[in-house]
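Final paragraph of the annual report: two paired records, presented back to back.
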Amino acid sequence: MRVIDFRDAKCRHCYKCVRHCAVKAISVKDEQAHIMIDHCINCGRCLEVCPQNAKTFASDMDRVKGYLRQGFKTIISIAPSYAGVLEFDRPGQVVDALLKLGFAEVRETAEGAAMVTNEYKKIIRENKMPNIITTCCPSVNDLIEKYYPECVPLMAPVVSPMIAHGRYIKKLYGNDVKVVFLGPCIAKKQEAIGDERVFGAIDAILTFEELAIWLEEAGIDIHQCEEKPMGNPDPKINRLYPVSGGIVQSVVTEEEADEYHKVYVDGLENCMEMLECLKQGELTHCFIEANVCEGGCAKGPASARWNTSYVKAKVKIENGVSHKAAKELPDMSTEELKKKFQDNRLTDRMPTEADIREILKSTGKYTPEDELNCGACGYPTCRDKATAVFQGKAELSMCMPYALNQAESMSNVVMDVTPNMIFVIGSDLKILDCNKKAQELLGVGREEAVQRYIFEFIETQDIEETLRTKEPVIHKKIRLEHGKMTAEETIVYIENLDSVLVTFQDVTREEKMKEQHYNLKVETVEMAQKVIEKQMMVAQEIAGLLGETTAETKVTLTKLRDSILEEED
């Protein structure tokens, strides 16, 4: 199932999503980023960092609206993080708003969390597992199954609170009921719909942001709603699941001491570091609460609309929690809450050392010293990027230093082969740069030229005027080399450098040819004038015989002469 994707033609060569994707689940082809479904853990990091807002995620809103239109009894399971994200005066107003949309009942996912907590407690009491990793975060689960399969035996064989709740609601009301999960997590979409091991527990997923859009469309203001109760008993401490350390607190509440060290880890990089430690056998007898989102689920990637700080969300959630264990647990067996995790490791084709060296050479990296490892492409090292190129995930052009060198090289070629003289002149009239033709004009090399001022070589009245007014000079005829060269002068002000770009195009040859052409026309005119004079004499003689005026003839011939000269103008 494709949960996250990119809009075509939105990418702008920034590779920000690649840099921030810890598992490098983004490929770039034809300068367009693509999500690799089999590599993605749906953490939503790329959604958060994309400057072009080019990422999209699958929406179930139309499906949910369809359930309601068709008259299906539809119950919504709302994640306890709503208390820290949504805006309301009293929590019960959220319940009323959801009922107004057409849902038959609103229940807290924390009810499912209470069941999961109870299963975690059983595993702890059994004391058979060397380490226990909680399995509430679907992104952590995918991370382990795909990238750290060695740690799969350490995963608590328990479904997430969402799945537990969905199964319980269907057990309570029958399989014909539709269950919709509402929360801040986009990874839940993959877990509910794309994981065949738990398929059927949840029928659709809505995010808090989608809910906000729907309420606006329906004209429902939460602040104007009545306060109505949830359809479930108070899940008490289990409402803390979205807060960092909330699972640990739920597990230890009203329990006797055990041999497991309780620790919580949040943030993708921290989770990966923890898993590396487990792989190396550096941790023993730990109960580990793991969440990909920093701060837990209190602010998932689908709650950015509210821009609420994690601390604020945490305080709001904790203020509505009773720090006691839930006593009224639903009637669900361990077997009903069980999930078997598996080794889903990826099998990317790996390059040989010769393959890597060849790819590195194609981007101008012939020695280890050439490998800058700048990370601009999104990969930590040049070798990692070369591996990605080999696997078809990256393109050679993603190497920024290489692309810059290529651009500079091309720019230098253009500068050097152009027949025009090009200068960059600073506001103090100092020469900042010049090409080879300009150096020939000055009679000095570049090293000396950039140490001197342009007024040492040529008249600078036009340059000074452009620096003062910032108005360009376009194709103005001037004399250079003490009148030996005719050039077309173009001067353009460069705002960010407070300097001017000066171009001289040598048009001496063209001007000479033009002068020769003009002289030829003048000679032609002179000859025409003589012809006119002779014709006038003949015309006068004829006119004398015929008694007619010569004025009309004179006008016609004169126009002929003048037209030749006007062609030059």
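The closing record of the year follows.
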Amino acid sequence: MNLVEKLSLQTVTFCLIFGSGTAALASDERLPVLAPASPGPTEETLREEDLPEENSIEENSIEEDLPEEMPTEEMPTLERELPTSTPGTSERIQLNLPDLINVVIQGNRELKNAVLERVVQQQTLVQAESAFSPQLTPSLSIRADRTLSNSDSSASNNNFPGGDGGDRTDFSEDLEVTSTLATPLGTQIEVSLAPTDEFSRVNLTVNQPLLRGAGQAINRAPIQQARIVDDNNVLALRQQVIDTITNSVTQYTTLVQAQEAVVIQAQALERRRQQSEIVTALVEAGRQARVDLVNSARSIAEAELSLQARQNELAQANTDLLNLIGSEATYQFVVPDNVIAQLFEQAVRRADGFQQDRLIEMAYQLRPDYQQAIASLEIEDLSLLLARDNRRWNLDWQNTARIGDDTTQLSTGLELSRTFGNESLRTAVTRSQTSLLQQQNTIDQLTETIRNQVTDRLRDVGSELAQVEAAQRATEAAQLQLQVTQEKFKLGRDNTTLFDITQQEENLVTAQNAELQARISVLNSIAELEQAVGITIDTWQPLVDFGPVLAEEES
């Protein structure tokens, strides 16, 4: 019998142990609530046949604890999006994990903000890639010049417009259109056109760097950096999606655990109420002390308090899911019957094919943070290239042409220059060299971290699978011990007291919760293992519509 078959058999046994209470919860589609204890028999004597059968406690359902006014119609099932909620109501919705992830992907506010931020990031890339696009700058200026004379009025100045003596106003307008263009070789071209009523002139300037700023490698480096940054932004969004899915899984399992814990505690409460009936009958028959009635009532009250605590935990888990989804409605989520068994079987089947070396290699290829680190190393390498270029001499080949209506002027020449004493240039090179080494160290550290994370998560899965098997045996033993103790108490054997039954009852509840926790831990550990490897999205891709969140990767 292999691992999958063995754990599948365990899952069936788990369902049988918790089946009665869970089935009652799913069939009535509501959670148990507190109810007063039922009165015991009123006969003066208690006959042997009046005692409950050995297995009657386990066979009784908790349905009697549910109020009759609760609706019994079938709950809506969550599919892709939440239904409209009426304010002031709490609509019950059956929730499965794939539908939860779908709704989270659509409604989570942090993911929405990340998608919106991509609009700005994409425009930043467009801006960087437009470095070699021509730029056109038209300009129009209108100017008025007022001249005031400091001498007395004279006849010779009375002819100026505007009149008083030597004062006059001159109007002028200038129109110029300038276009600039940069090439991947570093060439800077500027053309200006200034048409007027009297003449038109064209100025052409061409500047070609020969040392600093020359060549495609230097001039394309900022564009390459911008593209790498944009790729890293896409990877960051992918990592956020992976983290969100993992968080969705763990919060869903929290809801599952909280709901199952309510069922377990409700079953315990029902057993104590039934035991109270037996105690009452025994007291009336004179076979037990009347103080046992007080002890029985106290044990029921304690079970009721525990059930209330479990229900509060369930309500909190429901609220956390609503916050994760990004909904302000008052939905009450209910997981389907036997969902933990289904999730456990699916997770175990996935885990059965895990191989450590293969998972580590996949992590190096698929983890977004590792790919970001590799890309950042390339960015630092380009930054070092630019910093070293800035320390070179300026040697520019300059060419100008001025073309008017009557004349044309042409000039060409070389200009050599360099600034000495500017330590910022040397500092920039040193900083780039240091950053490059630091980034390499970061990659090396991340390589080891990934290896350790995958190894640890895989070991956790194996250990927790073994814990499930041990916890199941403990539950079966606790259940058997409770049955034996109950039978001894009914028959008055071995001085068995109500305290003994209560103690065994608590042991059973503890064992059931421990087994439940073990199964939940397996589910969470496998989700965290897939997160550590970077295969979370691939795992859920067939069942989840990632829509615009990963639209760039799909295009």
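Residues 58 and 143 are 100 Å apart (CA to CA). This concludes the annual technical report; the extension proposal builds directly on these records.
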